[in-house]
């Protein structure tokens, strides 16, 4: 099999990318996941589904998002040309709307009465509440009480958008408890509800579904870059939390052996400081988490480790199974950017190009800024700018004493 057909066939029928992925869930849940997979495989082939999704991508999200040549930044660094895929310009300001619209529309086509999810910092919650308002399907979001108090703007937005926000007060009252709570509620009515996962993680078919909905990013970018430059970029980079914006960008480029793909994980306050980074593929090992086999950061006792990143969207102790596989076969290289480098990239992009990036996306920008000077001026780095940084402005201003 050639490499391109091999990638197109992934995952296999059991949801595996090599030895990663699968469905590590109790038997009754496996049936529920198999039903979602069968419905998805049928619905995604339907012309009316694809037409409605394409129409919403164009007229609602504002796709295609442009690819911008960051000339001043490139000149200042004195090396490769840096280009930005502007997912920050999407409605709601990030790539998450791509898969949230896909999931909300899928729920409608499946005849579900409700969509349910958890949210940590609230980014997934806002994108999903937006998509559900548009599609006209009730939405229930579980969020830890501690996060609710920290993330006021997103909490307000979810309420305005009409979703039912459930405050989770048990335990540490953050993301993990919100996942548990949302999942318990989901299991009360899996026939009437669709659980909308926020990245390319969880049991099969979610890593596949979310990837498919995000792959529009790379398809557009590849075509835009070819049309403009008559060639493909030398490097394509994206930040990696669960891995949805990265896999969305990489998928179209996987068969292009001459294009180097680089996923950028958060080194936080240092890779040698357990609990103070979130570099799962760099420092973790193969394991299991949230119903999938994937790289996992563990503490000494075999539990998921505490994680940290300056970007709350990247602090996850697991990572998508396809990324775990792509690391193993060497098709994608995974590197890191620290909190300090990320802050520097955030400020530099703001002041040199007038673009305030999300702190998540600034990790990929930091990698490009570090790499560009060692390359030639006729080489090109394409960065997925996954979201805008309005949400991070107060935090950065406080951190830097602005
Ligand atoms: C949530 C988020 C991420 C991280 O999620 P992935 O699934 O790894 O893409 C990255 N960038 C932005 C702007 C986000 O909101």
Automatic annotation (TrEMBL):
Enzyme Commission number(s): 4.2.1.20
Residue ranges occupied by any Tryptophan synthase beta chain-like PALP domain in the UniProt entry: 62-387
Listed GO CC annotations: cytoplasm
Cofactor(s) listed in the protein's UniProt record: pyridoxal 5'-phosphate
Keywords: Amino-acid biosynthesis, Aromatic amino acid biosynthesis, Lyase, Pyridoxal phosphate, Tryptophan biosynthesis
Pathway terms, separated by semicolons: Amino-acid biosynthesis; L-tryptophan biosynthesis; L-tryptophan from chorismate: step 5/5
InterPro entries from the UniProt entry: Trp_synth_b_CS, Trp_synth_beta, Trp_synth_beta/beta-like, TrpB-like_PALP, TrpB-like_PALP_sf
Catalyzed chemical reaction(s): (1S,2R)-1-C-(indol-3-yl)glycerol 3-phosphate + L-serine = D-glyceraldehyde 3-phosphate + L-tryptophan + H2O
Modified residues (N6-(pyridoxal phosphate)lysine): 96
Cited Gene3D superfamilies: 3.40.50.1100
Pfam families reported in the protein's UniProt record: PALP (PF00291)
Coiled-coil ranges per UniProt: none
GO molecular function list: tryptophan synthase activity
Family to which this protein belongs: Belongs to the TrpB family.
Function: The beta subunit is responsible for the synthesis of L-tryptophan from indole and L-serine.
Subunit comment: Tetramer of two alpha and two beta chains.
Protein name according to UniProt: Tryptophan synthase beta chain
Native source species: Paracandidimonas soli
């Amino acid at each position: 099999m050639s490499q391109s057909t091999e990638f197109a066939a992934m995952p296999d029928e059991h949801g595996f990318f090599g030895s990663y992925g699968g469905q590590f869930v109790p038997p009754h849940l496996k049936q529920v996941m198999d039903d979602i997979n069968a419905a998805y495989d049928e619905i995604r082939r339907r012309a009316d589904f694809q037409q409605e999704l394409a129409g919403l991508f164009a007229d609602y999200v504002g796709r295609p998002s442009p690819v911008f040549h960051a000339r001043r930044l490139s000149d200042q660094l004195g090396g490769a040309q840096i280009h930005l895929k502007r997912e920050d310009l999407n409605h709601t300001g990030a790539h998450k709307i791509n898969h949230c619209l896909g999931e909300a529309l899928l729920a409608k086509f499946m005849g579900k009465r409700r969509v349910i999810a958890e949210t940590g910092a609230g980014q997934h919650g806002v994108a999903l509440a937006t998509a559900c308002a548009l599609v006209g399907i009730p939405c229930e979001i579980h969020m830890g009480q501690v996060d609710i108090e920290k993330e006021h703007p997103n909490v307000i937005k979810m309420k305005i958008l009409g979703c039912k926000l459930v405050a989770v007060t048990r335990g540490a009252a953050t993301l993990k408890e919100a996942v548990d709570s949302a999942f318990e509620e989901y299991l009360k009515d899996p026939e009437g509800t669709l659980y909308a996962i926020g990245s390319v993680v969880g049991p099969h078919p979610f890593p596949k579904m979310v990837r498919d909905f995000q792959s529009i990013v790379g398809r557009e970018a590849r075509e835009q870059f070819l049309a403009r430059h008559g060639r493909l970029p030398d490097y394509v980079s994206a930040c990696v939390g669960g891995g949805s914006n990265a896999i969305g960008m990489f998928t179209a480029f996987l068969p292009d052996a001459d294009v180097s793909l680089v996923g950028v994980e958060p080194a936080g306050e240092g890779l040698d400081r357990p609990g103070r980074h979130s570099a799962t593929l760099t420092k973790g090992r193969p394991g299991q988490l949230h119903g999938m086999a994937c790289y996992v950061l563990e503490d000494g006792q075999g539990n998921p480790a505490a994680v940290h990143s300056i970007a709350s969207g990247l602090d996850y102790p697991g990572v998508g199974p396809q990324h775990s596989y792509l690391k193993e076969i060497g098709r994608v290289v995974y590197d890191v950017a620290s909190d300090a480098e990320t802050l520097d990239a955030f400020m530099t992009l703001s002041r040199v190009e007038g673009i305030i990036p999300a702190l998540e996306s600034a990790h990929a920008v930091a990698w490009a800024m570090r790499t560009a000077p060692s390359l030639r001026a006729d080489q090109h780095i394409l960065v997925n700018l996954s979201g805008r940084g309005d949400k991070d402005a107060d935090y950065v201003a406080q951190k830097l004493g602005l």
